[in-house]
Structures are given as C-alpha cells and as structure tokens.
Specification:
Blueprint: E1 2-6, E2 9-13, H1 21-47, H2 50-71, H3 78-116, H4 143-148
Antiparallel strand pairs: 1-2
Helix pairs in contact: 2-3
C-alpha cells in the first residue's frame, strides 16, 4: 500500500493478489465457516429459548477472543480478560440454574410415580386387567378391504 497526497487528501492504493492458491483457499475456507456458523445458528434457534441463544452467542465471542490470544498472539489486556471471566461466570451460573429448573419437573414426576406405586421407589403401578373391556373390530383400510365389504 502506498499513500499519496492529493489536495491534502490521503488516498491509499491497494492492489489485491487473488490469483495465488493460498489466498483463494483462505477466502473459500472463510466462506465455508461463515455458512456453517449461520446454519448452526439456525439449528440452535429451533432447539432453545432466547436467553440460551444469547448465552451461546457470548460463548462464541469468548472463544473468538481466546483463539485470537492463543493463535494470533494478540496481547491480552486486563479489560478483555476480566470481560471473559465475567462472561464465563455468567454462563456457568445460567447453566446451573437451567439444570435445576429442568430437574424439578423430573423430581415431581418421580415422586408421583412413587406415590402411585405405593411408596416403593423404582416400581410402576400394576396394569389393570382389561378383560372386561369390549373389543371392537375396525374395518381394514385400503382398496382390497373396501371390495370385501
């Protein structure tokens, strides 16, 4: 890049070199990664609620920052490190609370099953005899069943 002054305006000239194989490979790889991120985002939105999606977005940001520190040798300033630490504490706290909220209905269901089984843990209520239930023959579906009627 060269800077030249033209009427007190700095203009940068740039000559891209896209004909080399490594640069084309990295551009294609970047496009593939972007498509993968967008597709995975689409799948995650269908499986979780809005808060979980935001927590995953913060996790993605933290991972990008950490990879920048490790792979690109970017200097880790105290502000970035404290932000990462706060985000990680928040993610762990959210996961803990979410786990407790998911465990509560399962514990209630197990308690109800125990009460129905007479208080014995791990057993289900006995099935009732269905011999007194009147069975009804239903006609079979399909063209051959209609012809026989």
């Amino acid at each position: 890049m060269h800077a030249r002054t033209c009427w007190r305006l700095h203009v940068l000239t740039y000559a891209p070199v896209l004909r080399s194989v490594p640069s084309c490979f990295y551009i294609a790889l970047s496009c593939l990664i972007a498509v993968s991120v967008n597709f995975s985002t689409f799948l995650v939105i269908g499986k979780c609620d809005a808060v979980t999606y935001q927590v995953l977005g913060h996790l993605k940001t933290v991972l990008i920052l950490v990879l920048g520190f490790v792979m690109l040798k970017n200097p880790a300033n105290p502000r970035a490190v404290s932000g990462i630490a706060i985000a990680m504490v928040g993610m762990v706290a959210y996961a803990h609370e979410e786990g407790k909220a998911a465990a509560a209905p399962a514990a209630q269901l197990e308690k109800q099953q125990q009460e129905a089984a007479g208080g014995v843990a791990g057993t289900l209520p006995e099935k009732r005899d269905s011999a007194n239930v009147e069975l009804v023959d239903l006609p079979k579906a399909g063209p051959k069943a209609r012809e026989s009627q």
